[in-house]
Amino acid sequence: MLEVKDLSINYDDNVVLNNFNFCLSPGDFIGVLGSNGSGKSTLLNSLVGVYPNKSGGIIYNQKYLDKNHPFSSIGFSPQSQVMDWYLDVWSNVELGLRLANIDKHKIKEYCDFAIDIVSLNSAKKKIVDTLSGGQQQRVQIARAIAHKPNIYILDEPTTGLDVESSEKLLDFLLLESQNNKGVIISTHDISLLECFCTKILFIKDNKIEFFGCKEEFMKEQMIRFYIEFEYKITDAEFSWLKKNINEYQVINPFSIEIFTPNTTDHTIFSIINTFPKDTFNIKNISSNVINLRETYLNKVKH
Ligand SMILES: Nc1ncnc2c1ncn2[C@@H]1O[C@H](COP(=O)(O)OP(=O)(O)OP(=O)(O)O)[C@@H](O)[C@H]1O
């Protein structure tokens, strides 16, 4: 659908995206992750042709995108709100449909559909400037999705949305991706990504740190083992831990947490078996898998 090829973008001397390569394929629901300022918006803006100095580019239908951008195939909602503030909700969405060249006989149906997805039925006739921040965000999204494009590019679409509106929007996007459309969104809401995305694109230090299936990203997850001892850990045991266990954390004088990759070759038993004889009298062990949020935080920190 879209191929990002050797894309680099800089603002003056500040290289924001360094040699990005990835594809958005039919059926993909890509979540873009990264810290503030990592370049998520720059990337999404570049997919719709808003870029500063760059090399490489975006290939669509075997051609590099230029001024003849396929707007009718793309629904784009930027991070900053771009709307006609003194028109009502319905007219804003209608305008988007006209710009996307939708047949005028279908405009009412498409408008109603999009306004329903973002639950603004009762505010149809309200002037956008008089709406709350979250409602304005919903208008912008309705405008981006109303023409049911092949590709959805939404920059932090759930920011400012209440939980039920976020779920409704993401349910819709998920259905669209299952109908072989392509979806790419950036968000800081990791739990939503965990539920809805099929692929993750993680930006760190101006590069793509990870691009691939969510499951693969999660595979690098760790398991956390909580180990409680019968007595206070001795100094000798502390120094043994320091020397021999890669990732652990002391919780209190009686217990530690050990982190291991989520694979069968790194079971807690293989670790415990390395404990020197007659040390670490274990009282209890429990474990839990670290979720996507913590996986992401670990990756950002390291
Ligand atoms: N118009 C601009 N001129 C100069 N620098 C810019 C401009 N827009 C963005 N930048 C810089 O580019 C970098 C990436 O910004 P971008 O908005 O893409 O990050 P982001 O990942 O979307 O951040 P956030 O999570 O805060 O929305 C930042 O260092 C930012 O200061």
Note the run of SSEs as H and E: EEEHEEEHHHEHEHEEHEHEEHEH
Name the beta content range.
25-35%
Distance between the termini: 33 Å
Order of strands across the main sheet: 6-7-8-3-9-10
Features:
alpha/beta; nucleotide-binding; AAA+_ATPase; six-stranded mixed beta sheet; ATP-binding; single chain; 302 residues; 10 helices; transport; elongated; binds adenosine-5'-triphosphate
Description of the structure:
The protein is built from 10 helices and 14 strands. The chain is of the alpha/beta class and 302 residues long. A hairpin with a 2-residue loop joins strand 1 (2-11) and strand 2 (14-24). Helix 2 crosses helix 3 and helix 2 (89-99) packs parallel to helix 4 (133-145). The longest helix has 16 residues, at 163-178. It is elongated. The model has no long low-confidence stretch (mean pLDDT 87). It binds adenosine-5'-triphosphate. Adenosine-5'-triphosphate (ATP) binds at residues 11, 14, 16, 34, 36-42, 79. InterPro entries: AAA+_ATPase, ABC_transporter-like_ATP-bd, ABC_transporter-like_CS, ABC_transporter_ATP-binding, P-loop_NTPase.
